[in-house]
Amino acid sequence: MSVSKLKPIVFLACLIPLGQLVHRFYSDDLGANPIETLTKFTGSWALFILLASLAVTPLRRLTGWHDLIKLRRMLGLFAFFYATLHFANFLVLDHFFDWKRIGQDIVKRPYVTAGFTALMLMVPLAMTSTAEMIRRLGKRWQQLHRLVYVAATLGVLHFYWLVKSDITRPAQYAIVLAVLLGYRIAAKLMATKPHGAGHKAVTAKS
Amino acid sequence: MLILKPSDIKSSEITDKEVYINRRQFMKSTGLAAIGAGAALAGIELADPLPAHALEKLPNVKKSSFSTSEKANSLKDITTYNNFYELGLDKEEPAKNAKYLTTKPWSVEIEGEVKKPKTLSIEEIMKLAPLEERIYRMRCVEAWSMVIPWVGFPLSALINQAEPTNNAKYVQFVTLVDPKRMPGQQPSLFGSAIDWPYVEGLRMDEAMHPLTILSVGLYGEVLPAQNGAPLRLVVPWKYGFKSIKSIVKVRFMEKQPATSWNKMQPQEYGFYSNVNPEVDHPRWSQGTERRIGEILRRKTLMFNGYGEQVASLYKGLDLKKNY
ipTM score of the complex? Predict the structure, then answer.
């Protein structure tokens, strides 16, 4: 299948969680604490799609299907979209613009600090995601967008620091993230080795 | 068609009016109303479906003057939103896994600093004192709260029956360990969430306080498994996790007993765990709380609003250090 056909499918797939949320909302199926449900739901999807966007580069290298790169921006923007919903929920429904408490939460609670920082790091990435900005920033665009590694790490840390005792779920995210980042480090190390010249061509463009 | 007389409808089956109104406000306030054209229609049918349960009604339950007049949460909210890690980590899981926790037969061992250690069956325990309905506020350390109509009796009735010795300064409670009946106790890939069994404890004067009860029921019926059947502790001025569920052992001790959350994260959970808006938890600000069914947070009250009755227990104790 060509990526141009895959693109609308992935786009619709990324909208499924939102549709699910709207459906649960109207069928009064958000549970006893709807605000908590919204928080967890939007947060999990933001992190999941962010990791999916990080999987694009390894996947295209391993499969040789280089067109996959055309999905990356969309996935990144959807991750930002769900992260924004997640934050808006915290700001409006959870704290109802109680700025003092919101500020205290961001400063005092490491998991909020990490999550907030991750979102803030994603803002410039979303803003520079247009073709025009990619062209204008040139090589610096790539440098800037490496911030996604930091944002994803903070996102997983945010989740890890938040759970009370059983770390199974954040640990699953952490393992996936470690594999995705580990792949990049390994690829880089192979490329810089004198005998690893064969990999150079593959890793030149990340 | 059978027409129900008003008296046939249990109060637990009717969605609380306030909750209903709040839900409608919640729907409106989020602004999502613009999304679906059929939304207004869907919104009309918002009342809670009846929970599928057929629990035994408890006879001769007296009203208690210790009850709050605040509106109780619906039975559905109370039985579908539970922290009970033995039955699952998510709040919806305990209700789904409740079927595994069989509670017949059930007995409780009384041991430690007592004149005669013994084992009481749940049937014997139910006869220790007249059953009362106690409508209590419940405050979770995660900054949400509920109002729950428990059925139970003062813990002091069991303590008196146990005849503790003069050495008994504390009382420890222990939950069942049985991974078949408590699937949450099966080890996960990353080890167990908690070092089972779950244990909790109180100082003797806290345990003897008239507000401290052992609960065997909810909304006039036998306690559902997800709420800690067949016997659980309820200490309304402390965070919910102190109120240990599904008790199988009551142990009287001279030294302060271990408590589960304190063992896991002592910097976050102390032995006392009194509701205290002044002492922040590292993850949840304790200044405010969300009453389940409401949108806006409300201020958290010292000792969960039971200060008048219990503050004297802590005279001379630094509650910032002894959190």
Answer: 0.79
- pTM greater than the 0.90 cutoff: no
Report the Cα B125 to chain-centroid distance in Å: 19
Contact B303, B256 (CB under 8 A): no
Distance of residue B158 Cα from the nearest chain A Cα, in angstroms: 32
Chain-chain contact of A165 with B295 (C-beta, under 8 angstroms): no
Closest residue by Cα to residue B144 from A1, A122, A35:
A35
- Residue A74 near residue A7 (C-beta atoms within 8 A): yes
Q: Which of A30, A107, A164 should be substituted to probe chain B, the one whose Cβ sees the most B Cβ atoms within 10 Å?
A: A164
pLDDT in tens, B15-57: 555 555 555 454 444 444 443 333 333 333 334 444 445 689 9
Between chains, do B80 and A32 touch, taking CB under 8 Å as contact?
A: yes
Query: A156 near A115, Cβ under 8 Å?
Result: no
Contact yes or no for B91 and A32 at CB 8 A: yes
Angle at the Cα of B222 from the Cα atoms of B219 and B223, rounded to 5 degrees? 80
Beta-strand pair B288-291/B144-154: parallel
